[in-house]
Amino acid sequence: MSTTTTAVLVPLLPFLGALAGLLTGRRAPGFVRPLAVLPTAAAAVLAVVVAWRQGGGEALDAATRLTPTGSVPIDLALHLDGFAVLVAVLVGIVATCVQAYSTAYLRDDPRYPSYAALVSLFTAAMLLVVYSGDLMVLLVGWEIMGICSYFLVGHYWETEAARTASLKAFLVTKLGDVPFLIGILALAADAGTFRINGILTAVASGGIDHPTLIALLLLAGVAGKSAQFPLHTWLPDAMAGPTPVSALIHAATMVAAGVYFVARLLPLFTASAAALVVLAVMAAVTMVGSALAALAQDDIKRVLAYSTVGQLGYMTGALAVGNRSAAVFHLISHGAFKALLFLGVGVIIHAAGTNSLAAMARMGGLAKRIPDAYWTMTVALLALAAIPPFSGFFSKEAVLGAAEHAAEGDATGIPGAAGWLVLTAGLLTALLTAAYACRLWLMAFRGKGAEAPDHGRQPAAMNTVLWILFLPTLGLGLAAGKLPDWFDGGSLTPTLTTSVLSTGCALAGGIVMYAAWRRTVVLAARTPLGAVAADPDAAPYVSEEETIATHEAAYGDIAAAPDPADPGRALLGPLHRHAASGFHLDAVYSALFVRPTRAAARLAQFLDREVVDAYVRGAGTAPRLLGEAVRRAQTGNVQTYLSALLAGSVVLAVAAVLVATGA
Questions:
Q1: Based on the domain organization, do 389 and 331 belong to the same domain?
Q2: What is the largest CA-CA distance in the chain?
Q3: What pTM was estimated for this model as a whole?
């Protein structure tokens, strides 16, 4: 079987698994789990085979004309370069782990068949984006992911949080997709093709007439899909969905698509200095703002959600300084340890019965109860904090090293301002990342107080997946020396200056957070949680099934309550309240867009009901009254009819005489 044929099967197998799962889910429930796991696992194996055969050498291209569309045809095209094959391996492995994990996590969920099918379709769409060599085919996968995310985030549709989050994710990403589509059409009009190779050739020859405008239009879609400022607000709310869905979206699909898209078309963006500066500003604000927000979150999943936003900021920062090798390397490294973190959090929630870090800080013995999650998440958090020798250190250093070269003017065509902006924001974010990673670990695993409720042993499938993802988290960075063959041949070796600075920042952030925790840990044990919860009457415990089904904090809304035992509050001080709410960006959007839109809808409803419907009702009332009068005249009495005829004749005769006399 040829490499291109094998590559076609990679997205096709999960798609067929999704189709079979939807058709047989109710009739043959025993086949649902095999149809969820096996096609995705087979796709992952084939993705590894494709990567092995491609070997980081020359890109493999294959295409067939899909349909004639006039001047700009659409091709069903494959483009297999080093970036594509490695990202496909990441998608396949993470999706397989998510499907296997979900068989235990959602084992009693009556909607599991549709859930599993949607996860398979989600995976197929992302693989289509990764392998596609044509922008319109890529756009198909791009939009399918948006639809799947709507249904998966809203899986627990009985809760208002899930319904609102799914709608918000759909609308915000679609808001970015409108200019994204316009940008693709404008790009194809300038280049004369939707084929990515043809577009890059046109860029190299100066055939793109409006590179800045097109790049900015495309960046709007990337900001929405990859949750970058200012269109990042949907991602933290998407935590209302099942935890395995969060792992899939944050690690290997959806949010990674925007970064991967810019990496594929990076020469277009580097052709515009203005676009690079905009990208750098977007990355810097995203990195720092999301890290501050993560420090203030009480929901453990929202901490990781803001963490994902910040790490995506590192990737877009690497692209802003013209280094797609560092961006994709961090995408792959982050995908491994972030999937591990989310799935590990699922185990924690399963064991603690709550998403609340404040509640976990008042539980003792949680680490001993879930040793697999404890050890694997400890390593994953070290990777997130970029502590050597874990994978996150090498990939983050590749980003900061690229920013350093750009700042020093060593990167051709890259504005020095973009380099300095990404480097400064990256170092500050390294400090904050270590701080919130340390906070999560201390509050989740080093709580003081009564023993955590015992909910039984964790399913073996959940723990096994954690150890599978542990391997790339631990060892992927050590392969950095061999990865340049797949990554344009550029060096991914950490530079001394940024390594020392960023590691120092990370250690400082961890030490400061540990010192703050030491001051507050006694308060955590002494202060009853009901005294700090926004709802003091909330029940002290919510059962495992209710917590996993509703994803509500077990002790009420603690994020806005003044909890003196939170070390994040101690560090942020007055800034904590603003950071906990995401710096009120949702409130700004509500004032600027949501309220005016609702007011316009109410006005339209009033006009439709009181004006338009009034004319419709009037048009129906006149014939009805006429008909009523005619009906009353039909008495069936011949004398009445003759009298009416005689009266009418007399009236007509009189009228005729009057008219004749007047004439």
A1: yes
A2: 117
A3: 0.87
